[in-house]
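Sample entry was shown:
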Amino acid sequence: MTDEQYDAIVVGGGHNGLVAAGYLGRAGLSVLVVEKRRTVGGAVASVRTFPGVDAHLSRYSYLVSLLPDQVVADLGLRIELRSRATASYTPVDRDGRPGGLLVERAEGPATAAAFAELTGSAAEYDSWQRFQQTAGAVAGAIAPTLLRPLPRRADLADAVRSAAGADAWQALFERPIGELVEVTFADDAVRGTVLTDAVIGEHTYAHDPTLRQNRVFLYHVVGNGTGEWRVPVGGMGAVSAELERCAREAGAEIVTGAEVREVATDGAGCTVSWVDAEGAERTATAGHVLANVSASTLARLRGRTGADEEGSQLKVNMVLERLPRLRTDVDPRTAFAGTFHIDQGYGQLEAAYRAADAGQLPDPLPAEVYCHSLTDPSILGADLVAAGWQTLTMFGLHTPARLFRDDNAGMRERALHRALAGINRHLAEPIEHCLATDANGAPCIEAKTPLDLAAELDLPGGHIFHGDLQWPHADDDTDDPWGVATDTDRLLICGSSARRGGAVSGIAGHNAAHALLARLDR
């Protein structure tokens, strides 16, 4: 057993922990990062998932929106985030006739025509444009505050009202977002296209009185003031690799294969104990610990009982020999270039929530699909690119962890079958016919339930946000100006459990580092 001393120990080498280590190291602090897995990055990773197939998939997290340009510049990250050519495509069957709603990344005549064909007039697209302008104004008011001490609620309300109009604050911060969606839009598919950003990854619904759906919506639209979800060139692993490089160059020491068993604090400092890759017990001490683990995991490491959380998503990764043809005449390279919505009509989302809340797997199962390789072919080997191979990621909604607890493997197969049935309803050929096979002759497809994510990434209940997202403001005068405090000054939260945590952002890591530097007056 050894005992080493640092200024700060970061528990967990996910992206937020690496961001914190980079900032602290650049400020001259000695920093140790302790990571359970053999590689850093956590959910921000690229994996060659299928044997013999040269495809590096973003296996867990898959797109980047909330990572501020300021963090990229501050740390000198050499990453490229590409815009997708299509924002979204929603296939819609009405009166037995297949159709769809195309939303271009830069909206133009094709988007306007798609709205008119689907809804029968220009009115719904006019409402869509006004709604997007309001959401953009709200994002513009909130985004600059995310890397600063928390604004007071009243001050943020003034900023939102000034930027987006007097009604915007009440509609998004005080009333269920379902009210705003229903008063703004008439078409079920358009309503669902908006609502999906409010329910993805959370077990919630349009009129949830807790307003969890409102918070999810805000976090999906505020990134860098635009809310655009971009594709990292080289996959998510390229992002974590750059963060690791920057942390090491800043002087941080990183230990992997180290399972932390205890975090102890007192008035003088902190002790972190872990078992290393060879099974030896190790300890290190520091003036402060930054916890890049969930609040429930941190509680356990401190010998306490953490809150129960519950994820609500199904993640499916695929490699295809070709993109499937659609029942409509839309080019699949256009339809799959953005977010491809499946069974995400407003009524369908409500019905799916009610089914899942009653303990039933939704039928149909709402989901959305992304083809990263259309935007970034580099995640595939050159031979596969030349042959026309593609990757697909599917994200299923309203699949809470409770549905899988009695029989995870069996329910995983049922959920996967239901998700594939959903996309097949809109295809001219079953997607199974397009799947590539690996070196063992097995189809290149895998599914991850919330319980799988809990086991593989230590996500509490498989919750991709570590728990319910919180408002990006302080409720009143607070002694936690950065939203990262715990019950002791020696221990800070630098992961998704922080007040402005959640998603691939680095915001929590930045804010915990700056909170510590402010205490040390550096």
The chain has a mean pLDDT of 96.
